[in-house]
Design a protein that fits this description.
single chain; alpha/beta; 159 residues
């Protein structure tokens, strides 16, 4: 189950250990994100997806640049969701990712799927919530009780 912080808020980043097929975990996570967070990914400029065999340093640098910008209002929600599915994150990319996760910008939530978090730097793992059983995360019926409701995302205000 994806935990929330001690103060009851959602965490800004999750590493989900998964050996599931890419499409399976992607579909289940997107369904959960829509159902429990109210975030639609389809045609949403604030949904960013990277499905890569290895997360490169150049990709992480691109993430760093885009992460700093405030997301657009889309369907009344001002928030960016990042879904990164990879087999490997080299050490230099982990260090660059660590810089993003150490000082996260508001309005961003990261879901990073990797087969095994054992190869990740301890400092990187200390900045995220590690989830080891994605099947229970995405399919558990009462999961919404343990994660904030859709109003966690800032709603855009009409002027």
């Amino acid at each position: 189950m994806i935990p929330i912080r001690n103060d009851g808020a959602y965490h800004h980043a999750y590493i989900i250990e998964s050996s599931s097929q890419t499409q399976s975990i992607k579909d289940r996570l997107l369904s959960w994100i829509h159902k429990h967070l109210g975030f639609l990914h389809s045609q949403n400029p604030n949904y960013v997806e990277y499905i890569v065999p290895s997360l490169s340093i150049s990709t992480v640098r691109d993430i760093h640049i885009r992460h700093a910008d405030k997301p657009f209002e889309h369907n009344g929600i001002v928030h960016r969701v990042w879904l990164i599915i990879t087999e490997n994150i080299p050490v230099e990319a982990q260090n660059a990712l660590l810089k993003i996760l150490e000082e996260p910008k508001p309005y961003n939530t990261f879901f990073i799927v990797i087969p095994n978090s054992g190869s990740l730097l301890p400092t990187l793992k200390s900045r995220v919530q590690v989830v080891r059983d994605e099947e229970s995360v995405v399919t558990q019926q009462n999961f919404h009780k343990d994660f904030p409701q859709p109003d966690i995302f800032e709603k855009a205000h009409s002027a």
